[in-house]
Amino acid sequence: MDKSMLSIACLFGLSISYWPVVAEESRPAPYEIIAELEHGPGNVAVGPTGRIIFSLHQMYSPDINVMELMADGTTRPYPSEAWARPPNGEEELGTHAVLGVVIDQNQTLWLLDNASSPPRLIAWDMKNERLKRIYPLSSGSYTPKNTMINDLAVNLSDKKVYIADIFGDQGAGLIVVDIQTGDVRTVLRGHKSTSAELDSDLIIGGRGLRMKTDAEIITPKIGVNPITIDSQNKYVYYGAMHGTSIYRIPTSALNDETLSPSQLKKTIERFGDKPVSDGISIDEAGNVYVTDLQGYGIGVTAPNGKYRRLFTDRDTFIWPDGLSTAPKGTIVGTINQLNRSAPLNAGYDESKPPFYIYRFNAIADVKIGR
């Protein structure tokens, strides 16, 4: 594992067509701010009843890891104060650091507690407000070492969860969790589809990402981060943050433990183009929505593989991060200025509240949990 990946591991282990923002009289604004936050959010999940859950990004060392955005615009720790904070002593109750969050159609909230030892996938029943199950991500053929689990896609049809692991001793890869047996295995570790593609820096505001180590300032290169699954649970879509490609792989292949690594790799397709990005989502027509980090906005990769920006706003969309499908054909996202956070800005925190949760209309209908 190279120095830039090891440094990120240490940090996380602790832890449009073009539309202007100001709408013309004949054109509605392309997005709506639904919350202004004092602390940087991570990812966001919207359930079938419209409830909004979001993580607080661990790069900002939050006291609370997960919150619910209430209908009146206020927030509260979720599922509870105790669960949203780090565990007290040896108690199971609590979370260490959370990024990935998804609410499925059965109103189960899936949380990735990536800084626990080992990392954990937590399933929470939002209908009855109770813990369903904790999956330690160290069983089966997977043993975490210098890894960073980031985001996830949930496949209820096949009882699987797919997790993006942005680096590891053998490179970035995907983790497959069987939510019936609890078995965990890793695939595509170090494959080109999960690895950073670009030699150039991620430049935002005229400046690249800079990470301070004990000896020097380095430029991180980040592998697979964006991940989603189509509404038929047929394909998982994913790509590297530092990359210009979206790939997809059949869930039938990911689920098949009899396939050799070489056989599995042959099932991967390059779906289309994308910019350097963080989160992605997908609609019923197969359009993949992409957070455009250098373009300060949101774009879409059509089923024909062509990418275009939907809208851009240099003043507001400073590191758009997570995306989630939501009711009424909308998509909800977070904005958190990560490029200005101390871990990615050579040790200096230049971020300034407010941070945002926003929503926009999808091109086609959407299904919850993407």
From TrEMBL:
<dbReference type="InterPro" id="IPR017996">
    <property type="entry name" value="MRJP/yellow-related"/>
</dbReference>
<protein>
    <submittedName>
        <fullName>Periplasmic protein</fullName>
    </submittedName>
</protein>
<dbReference type="Pfam" id="PF03022">
    <property type="entry name" value="MRJP"/>
</dbReference>
<keyword id="KW-0964">Secreted</keyword>
<dbReference type="InterPro" id="IPR011042">
    <property type="entry name" value="6-blade_b-propeller_TolB-like"/>
</dbReference>
<dbReference type="GO" id="GO:0005576">
    <property type="term" value="C:extracellular region"/>
</dbReference>
